């Protein structure tokens, strides 16, 4: 069993409701968790959905995470129900009266839409600090009447929430299951549209990024092989595009094996003109690490040119895989990597090579993350990747603005 140290969502919202941006970050992760549970697990040769049946703030834990800032965990699957085809569900009530769906309080058969109702009640509370429905009394019968017939209170105008978000919350609390969003995925899609203009947040996403360094610091932390040597050129320019990769605009990490050892590299295929424009670009890299639900690194490389703009080269390293472990350790130990360029018009032979440095603090982080990941459980890598993609989109403007500001002092294309 995993030990978690954090704060329950009920404590987080006890004295003050969440601002919009923090709400979106937390509820998005809750939806990811529900999405996984509702898709199910393989049991006796059958994919069986899991219905939580007790979604409420006290069953959500907010944990501080070095990459995400806040990592959200859904707790207490003790009364969760594994739904198998052909199996009759128990006709009894289980859950928490204030958050349960009308069908749940009746003891009916449940599906994922019951959890979505509970989520709607909780979302209302997260944003307002109040409950949307009040019974005449706190008895079972009082809550039965409230969930079946009472209309949720309107959200006070003072909270100034987007109308689309208010609409989503009330849709989740629809009395009839068929009138609610049908899956957690449906909710996630609607939340994505709201994240383009969130309110100012009190939380900051923490990532491993290069610290400002003086020329003196660069010299003291500089690995012995920072620039592409003639030998490096000789090795890389002999490389050919892999047969199992499509000849199109893509980027992927690749081990370069030579008599001198193994070297970390990114292989990129672009138009010949684009490659020519990138050879004099500023090179920048940054790494973002998420531990849960699956340990993974987002490896960001950016080639920035004042006239031609940014060329982003993102890759993902799964730290539960042997190749991901090797890449993270090799990057951390060597302090640099090669970028091999292949032109769409020139066939399969490598045309140009660049080398980019990795800051000393990032090298240390990479090795620590590789070590830490060996002790962590694996989960759903596709969910972590989706979370990292979200963080990547948020980081882009910050990184690009930084490079625009520093362009005049960094024209030689060295790493920042």
From TrEMBL:
<dbReference type="InterPro" id="IPR008271">
    <property type="entry name" value="Ser/Thr_kinase_AS"/>
</dbReference>
<dbReference type="InterPro" id="IPR011009">
    <property type="entry name" value="Kinase-like_dom_sf"/>
</dbReference>
<keyword id="KW-0808">Transferase</keyword>
<dbReference type="InterPro" id="IPR050660">
    <property type="entry name" value="NEK_Ser/Thr_kinase"/>
</dbReference>
<protein>
    <recommendedName>
        <fullName>non-specific serine/threonine protein kinase</fullName>
        <ecNumber>2.7.11.1</ecNumber>
    </recommendedName>
</protein>
<keyword id="KW-0723">Serine/threonine-protein kinase</keyword>
<feature type="domain" description="Protein kinase">
    <location>
        <begin position="1"/>
        <end position="194"/>
    </location>
</feature>
<dbReference type="GO" id="GO:0004674">
    <property type="term" value="F:protein serine/threonine kinase activity"/>
</dbReference>
<keyword id="KW-0067">ATP-binding</keyword>
<dbReference type="InterPro" id="IPR000719">
    <property type="entry name" value="Prot_kinase_dom"/>
</dbReference>
<keyword id="KW-0547">Nucleotide-binding</keyword>
<dbReference type="Pfam" id="PF00069">
    <property type="entry name" value="Pkinase"/>
</dbReference>
<dbReference type="GO" id="GO:0005524">
    <property type="term" value="F:ATP binding"/>
</dbReference>
<keyword id="KW-0418">Kinase</keyword>
């Amino acid at each position: 069993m995993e030990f978690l140290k954090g704060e329950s969502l009920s404590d987080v919202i006890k004295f003050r409701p969440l601002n919009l941006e923090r709400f979106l970050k937390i509820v998005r992760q809750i939806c990811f968790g529900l999405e996984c549970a509702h898709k199910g697990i393989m049991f006796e040769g059958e994919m069986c959905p899991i219905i939580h049946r007790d979604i409420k703030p006290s069953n959500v834990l907010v944990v501080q995470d070095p990459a995400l800032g806040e990592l959200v965990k859904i707790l207490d699957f003790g009364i969760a129900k594994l739904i198998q085809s052909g199996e009759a569900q128990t006709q009894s009530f289980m859950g928490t009266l204030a958050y349960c769906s009308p069908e749940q309080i009746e003891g009916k058969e449940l599906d994922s839409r019951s959890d979505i109702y509970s989520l709607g009640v909780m979302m209302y509370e997260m944003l307002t600090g109040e409950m949307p429905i009040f019974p005449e009394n706190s008895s079972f019968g009082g809550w039965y009447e409230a969930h079946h017939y009472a209309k949720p209170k309107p959200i006070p105008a003072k909270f100034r929430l987007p109308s689309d978000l208010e609409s989503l919350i009330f849709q989740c609390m629809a009395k009839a299951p068929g009138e609610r969003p049908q899956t957690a995925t449906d909710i996630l899609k609607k939340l994505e549209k709201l994240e383009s203009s969130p309110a100012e947040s009190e939380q900051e996403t923490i990532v491993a990024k290069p610290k400002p360094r003086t020329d003196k610091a660069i010299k003291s932390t500089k690995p012995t092989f920072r620039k592409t040597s003639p030998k490096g050129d000789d090795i890389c320019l002999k490389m050919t595009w892999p047969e199992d990769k499509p000849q199109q605009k893509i980027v992927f990490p690749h081990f370069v094996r030579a008599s001198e050892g193994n070297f970390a590299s990114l292989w990129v295929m672009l138009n010949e003109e684009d490659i020519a424009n990138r050879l004099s670009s500023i090179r920048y890299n940054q790494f973002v690490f998420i531990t849960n639900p699956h340990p993974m690194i987002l490896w960001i490389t950016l080639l920035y040119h004042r006239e031609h703009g940014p060329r982003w080269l993102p890759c993902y390293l799964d730290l539960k895989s042997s190749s991901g472990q090797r890449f993270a350790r090799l990057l951390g130990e060597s302090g640099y990597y090669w970028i091999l360029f292949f032109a769409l018009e020139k066939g399969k032979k490598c045309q140009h090579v660049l080398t980019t440095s990795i800051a000393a603090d990032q090298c240390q982080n990479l090795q620590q993350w590789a070590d830490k990941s060996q002790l962590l459980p694996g989960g759903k890598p596709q969910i972590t990747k989706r979370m990292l993609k979200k963080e990547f989109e948020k980081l882009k403007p910050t990184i690009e603005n930084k490079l625009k500001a520093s362009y005049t002092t960094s024209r030689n294309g060295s790493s920042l």
